[in-house]
Amino acid sequence: MNHFLLPFIAFDLIVTLAVVIAVLKLRGRLLAVSFSTTPGAVSMDQLRALGDFAREQHPHIGEYMRANWSGMPDQLPSVLTGLLNELESTAKERNLPLDRGMLKAMLASSLRSHRIGKGSERDEAFKQVA
User: Fold this and answer.
1) Do 48 and 108 fall within a single domain?
2) Residue 33 bridge partners (DSSP)
3) Which positions ≥6 away from 47 have C-beta within 8 Å?
4) Are residues 76 and 122 located together in one domain of the fold?
């Protein structure tokens, strides 16, 4: 390898890292996972609890959606609201530190994984779900 190439590779890595950090800062997700307990930050305990809860509830989410949603896009927000209320109730019963926003993200991920509904339909329905 040519020894003149190494500085260019190092420079390229630095520029790439700077661009990735700038994009993440603009999107506001650079410090979405934090070790501190500042408002709006997700603690590691919450993240771990969410992961465990998501793995446990994933089969139930698929069954619930298949049983309660006919495939009509206009029904999706009400079905998602009912399921989200149920998930929130289950999380509270187990004293899990999960808020509604985290549960919505978990539910959206599970629906994508189950391939339930089209992406645009899910996105529009989640905008209508409180």
Assistant:
1) yes
2) 42
3) 33
4) yes
Note down the domain range covering 18: 1-30
Q: Token pair for residue 75?
A: 């029904």
pTM given for the model:
0.63
The amino acid present at 125, given as its one-letter code, is A
Q: Are 84 and 129 in contact (CB under 8 A)?
A: yes
First-last CA distance in the chain? 58
36: left (phi over 0), alpha (psi -120 to 50) or beta: beta
Please report, in tens digits, the pLDDT of each residue of the chain (130 residues total).
566 677 767 777 777 877 777 777 766 654 444 444 445 555 677 677 778 888 899 999 999 999 999 889 899 999 999 999 999 999 899 888 778 888 888 888 888 888 888 888 888 888 888 7
**Secondary structure class of 33 (helix, strand, coil):** strand
Domain annotation covers residue 35: no
- 15 and 51 inside one domain: no
Per the structure, how many domains does the chain have?
2
